[in-house]
Design goal:
Helices cover 49% and strands 12% of the residues. The chain is built from 3 helices and 2 strands, in the order H-E-E-H-H. The chain has a two-stranded antiparallel sheet. Helix 1 crosses helix 3.
Amino acid sequence: MEPATVVVWPDNRLAVRVFQAMGTQWRVGAAGPTGLDYGVVPEIWRRLRVPPDQRDAVFMDLRVIEGAALEQTHSKEI
């Protein structure tokens, strides 16, 4: 089965790139993922060259994406 194509609006592309770059930075507990390790965010910003004046907005968008990912992950039946 082919993966679905997802269209990302231009306003959200930077936050999606940050989220993708943080793909290995999940904190995990006994019940699975609990959230991203925000301590890594400054390094990701540096590597992706996120302008300082956009970081607050990108962080808020990242939290929305993270929340949706957690909701989806924890909604799956085992």
